[in-house]
C-alpha cells in the first residue's frame, strides 16, 4: 500500500510522522473517511465540507484547496490500484514542542492519506446477516460534531462491543436516548414504518451517509422523524440500522442481546442500502 504524507507518496511501511506531532500527543487533529466505489469517492463534496468545518472549529488552516486535495486523493487511490475500499485522511495542527496551547509560531498542518480495500461481497453477506450492538453510557465530550481523532471513548466502546460478541456500540445519554454509534449514526424504523434518527446537534457527528440517506428516503417516499429513540424503542421497532462511510446502511438485529423486531434484517434497511449503493456507483 502507498501512503501520502506531507506532500510525498511512499510505501506505507516507510511512512512516518514526527513524535511531536500534535495529533499524536494531544489528538489535535481531524479526519475524514470516504467510501470508494468503482474508484469513485462517495459523497466527496459532503466530506470536504465537513473537513473544512472541523478544521475551522479547531482553527487549523486547510492544508490545500479543495481542488488540489481532490487531485491528491485521486492520485492516492490510483497509486494503490484499489477500486472498492476506504480513503482515510487526517490533518493535524502540525509539529511543535509539547504545549497544550497552540504553537506561537505558525506551523504547517501535517496531512496523511491512506487507502484500504473493502471486499464488497463479504460486506453484502454481512449486511444480509445483520449485526448486534451493545449500549454504553455516553462519556464523550460535548463537541462530537467535530470529527477529531480524539476517539478513545469510541475505541473503548467498540472493544466492549467486540468482547460482548457484538459489532457496534451505541452511546446512551443521561436521558436514556441513543446518541449514535462509536463509528456510525443510529436509526430505527418505527411501528408505523417511519424512519427515526436523532437530529443533528453537537452531541453527534453529522454523518454524511446520514445526510445523503435523508435524501434517498425522501425520494423513496418514506417519512422521517428526526427525534432520538431509546434502546427499548429500538427493540420494539420493526427494524434498526446504522449508517456510515465504513458500513453504508447496515441492519441491526439485536440490542444488548435482545432481538430487534423479528430479529432479522428487514426490507426497509435492505432497500435503503441498495438505493444508497446504486447512487454511490
Ligand atoms: N466514522 N458517528 C461517528 C462517531 C463516526 O465516527 C462516524 C463515521 C459516523 C458516520 O459518519 P459518515 O456517514 O460521515 O461516515 C457517525 C468513520 C467511518 C470512521 O471513524 O471510520
TrEMBL record:
Pfam families per record: Aminotran_4
Biochemical pathway: Amino-acid biosynthesis; L-leucine biosynthesis; L-leucine from 3-methyl-2-oxobutanoate: step 4/4; Amino-acid biosynthesis; L-isoleucine biosynthesis; L-isoleucine from 2-oxobutanoate: step 4/4; Amino-acid biosynthesis; L-valine biosynthesis; L-valine from pyruvate: step 4/4
Single GO biological process annotation from the record: branched-chain amino acid biosynthetic process
Recorded coiled-coil stretches: none
One cellular component (GO) term of this entry: cytosol
Enzyme Commission no: 2.6.1.42
Enzyme class per UniProt: transferase
Cofactor(s) annotated in UniProt: pyridoxal 5'-phosphate
UniProt entry keywords in alphabetical sequence: Amino-acid biosynthesis, Aminotransferase, Branched-chain amino acid biosynthesis, Pyridoxal phosphate, Transferase
MF term (GO), any: L-leucine-2-oxoglutarate transaminase activity
Catalytic activity, reaction form: L-isoleucine + 2-oxoglutarate = (S)-3-methyl-2-oxopentanoate + L-glutamate; L-leucine + 2-oxoglutarate = 4-methyl-2-oxopentanoate + L-glutamate; L-valine + 2-oxoglutarate = 3-methyl-2-oxobutanoate + L-glutamate
Domain of life from the UniProt record: Bacteria
Function: Acts on leucine, isoleucine and valine.
Family note: Belongs to the class-IV pyridoxal-phosphate-dependent aminotransferase family.
Designated name of the protein: Probable branched-chain-amino-acid aminotransferase
Organism placement in taxonomy: Bacteria, Pseudomonadati, Pseudomonadota, Alphaproteobacteria, Caulobacterales
Amino acid at each position: 500500500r502507498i501512503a501520502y504524507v506531507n506532500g510525498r507518496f511512499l510505501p506505507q511501511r516507510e511512512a512516518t510522522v514526527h513524535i511531536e506531532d500534535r495529533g499524536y500527543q494531544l489528538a489535535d487533529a481531524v479526519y475524514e473517511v470516504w467510501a470508494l466505489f468503482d474508484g469513485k469517492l462517495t459523497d466527496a463534496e459532503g466530506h470536504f465540507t465537513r473537513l473544512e468545518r472541523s478544521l475551522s472549529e479547531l482553527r487549523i488552516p486547510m492544508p490545500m484547496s479543495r481542488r488540489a486535495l481532490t487531485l491528491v486523493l485521486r492520485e492516492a487511490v490510483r497509486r494503490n490500484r484499489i477500486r472498492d475500499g476506504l480513503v482515510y485522511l487526517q490533518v493535524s495542527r502540525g509539529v511543535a514542542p509539547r504545549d497544550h496551547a497552540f504553537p506561537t509560531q505558525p506551523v504547517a498542518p501535517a496531512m496523511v492519506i491512506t487507502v484500504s480495500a473493502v471486499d464488497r461481497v463479504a460486506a453484502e453477506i454481512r449486511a444480509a446477516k445483520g449485526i448486534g450492538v451493545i449500549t454504553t453510557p455516553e462519556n464523550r465530550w460535548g463537541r462530537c460534531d467535530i470529527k477529531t481523532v480524539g476517539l478513545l471513548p469510541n475505541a473503548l466502546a467498540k472493544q466492549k462491543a467486540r468482547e460482548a460478541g457484538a459489532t457496534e456500540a451505541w452511546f446512551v445519554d443521561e436521558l436514556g436516548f441513543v446518541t449514535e454509534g462509536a463509528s456510525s449514526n443510529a436509526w430505527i424504523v418505527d411501528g408505523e414504518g417511519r424512519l427515526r434518527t436523532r437530529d443533528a446537534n453537537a452531541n453527534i457527528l453529522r454523518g454524511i451517509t446520514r445526510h445523503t440517506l435523508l435524501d434517498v428516503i425522501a425520494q423513496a417516499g418514506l417519512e422521517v422523524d428526526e427525534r432520538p429513540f431509546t434502546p427499548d424503542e429500538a427493540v420494539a421497532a420493526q427494524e434498526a440500522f446504522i449508517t456510515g462511510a465504513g458500513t453504508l446502511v447496515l441492519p441491526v438485529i439485536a440490542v444488548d442481546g435482545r432481538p430487534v423486531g423479528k430479529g432479522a434484517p428487514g426490507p426497509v434497511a435492505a432497500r435503503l442500502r441498495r438505493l444508497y449503493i446504486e447512487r454511490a456507483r
